[in-house]
């Protein structure tokens, strides 16, 4: 099978020859190819070139121009973002600081802002040049809203003024949808909704402010992955029924704090699982042999499910050694599925 066949089959729960590798490589591709952090957000050609080289070096099954695209999108909306050459970007001035600011939030022209334009043009270049699926990454409803408005304010609003929170998220949804439509038009075929911040919420708040909105977002792509990193075992235990009711949710990406087999059972094997290799300690600090063992243990824990994909718990960091990423990818070899 080629990577398109393997990834699409896994997302549908059909036969695969081996577990696909879904690596979530963003700035790591630039750093190992000599690019500065800021260049990955300033030059679409150079960013895409770095990802093409990383794909050839490692040989995984799915690529993307960036796994943390929210900085460009929030910047396009009007927030201020700093792009230093030696570290990841960060928001220096939020767009929404009070309830009165909500009226200034609107869907922007993503091509007018350099960083978001790079994401779109870079996706188009990758789609033209690589022979694997290209994914569109974007933060989900609650995580994106928490980038538009400071955590310390919005977390309180969720409790004290849920009506405002819903209004903010509803506007966020419009922006998310338009952005990922643009990436789809550029050639992306899979959508990854990154809800990093679900782990900070009680499960009932996660259901109210995130899960209930995902159905609308997932209408755009045929294939959808929900990324839930961190300690979310309790969330999955309490929200599994809600997840199963979301149409076109193909796979849930989990981290090392979450059990693969238990998650599969909670989801009745109707939704795939991607994970759960430790991206924080093991991949950057372990040995290649330890990485290989972890990958093989994850495949064993999956019970040979055709829906299972090998993936890190979150983005592979820039300081992860090349040999460890190679071990992560190559460990699936010899694990052909019956």
Write the layout of secondary structure elements.
Elements: H1 3-12, H2 27-32, H3 44-58, H4 70-77, E1 80-82, E2 90-93, H5 114-129, E3 135-139, H6 141-148, H7 151-160, H8 162-186, E4 190-194, H9 203-217, E5 223-227, H10 233-244, E6 251-253, H11 260-266, E7 272-277, H12 282-285, H13 288-301, E8 309-312, H14 322-330
Parallel strand pairs: 3-4, 4-5, 5-6, 6-7, 7-8
Antiparallel strand pairs: 1-2
Helix pairs in contact: 3-5, 4-5, 5-8, 6-8, 7-8, 8-9, 9-10, 13-14
Structural description of this entry:
The protein is 47% helix and 10% strand. By secondary structure, the protein is of the alpha/beta class. The chain has a single domain, classed as TIM Barrel (Alpha-Beta Barrel). The chain has a six-stranded parallel beta sheet, sandwiched between helices. Strands 1-2 form a two-stranded antiparallel ribbon. β5 (223-227), α10 and β6 (251-253) form a beta-alpha-beta unit. α6 (141-148) packs across α8 (162-186). The longest helix is centred in the middle third of the chain and has 25 residues, at 162-186. The two termini are 14 Å apart. The mean pLDDT is 95.
